[in-house]
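dumping this here before i forget
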Amino acid sequence: MRVDPDIFVRYFLGQCNEEEKETIREWLESDEAHKKEFVRERIRFDASLIVEEQELASVRKAPFSGRTWTFAKVAAAIILLLGSSFLFQFYLSHPEDTALQTVYVPAGSRTCVELPDGTSAWLNSNSTIYYPNIFPKGRRIVELDGEAYFDVTPDRKNRFIVRTDKYNIEVMGTTFNVEAYKDEDFFKTTLYTGSVRLYKDQCEEEALYLRPGQAAELIGDQLQVTTASMSSYRWKDGLIILEGHSFREVMHLFEKYFDMQIIIENENVKDLAYNGKLRIVDGIDHVLRVLQNDFRFTYHRDVETNIIYIY
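structure:
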């Protein structure tokens, strides 16, 4: 039994009639291999949507054009989607009734996403969230690569889980912040209200619980509980709150918020601490001038390479 490839696109767009939907259901049930083929078609479809909404940074700078350019963008998007085991398993488990959404926030930007249950998720720079159009009964699962602040809609019958490549965070109705970029070793969860449970796949018996005002940070290969900064989520309001951050840490934040590389050549300022509040909208030049009131350094901004050198 074969299916016209065009029917998949209409199905994913919600444009199939009842006869076409029944054809797909029969095709899925006729062979287990069809489910995997359906997943591959779904991933290709989602990849095309990502390309339309956001040109992937890793491909955008390459000197491609024409068909090669389009192919490279789609290929990069497919690699991004296939890189998440959660996506593949989610599609495979719910092939006939689940459409997975992907929201990517490029460097220097922030956005707020309302999830199907009414939960609000604020995404920070260089962050991606994956979630279904409709949460299956009994569980609300999203996957995060990056940093996000969640205000979870209470629902005792349906647990809410944020999956990352390091730890999973389970909540009922809670406000909390998660920072877990796949390409960085750093992981931190900060709890503001409610309660959370952190655990790794296959190791739920070793779960760690947090109370409001606590944070769990990955140091080495162990989670350690510390007192939380209750203003650390203010990035979603466009503010950078610095509370004893070293100059090196501040520059790392600037790289994330302003989408540029910063190289510190001045060894005398790297470990000096800073306290203050800065507005992201003011731009990189303004915030650096503010820091110059407290630190002795100069800087040069290379516009062509998008690199700032600190001297």
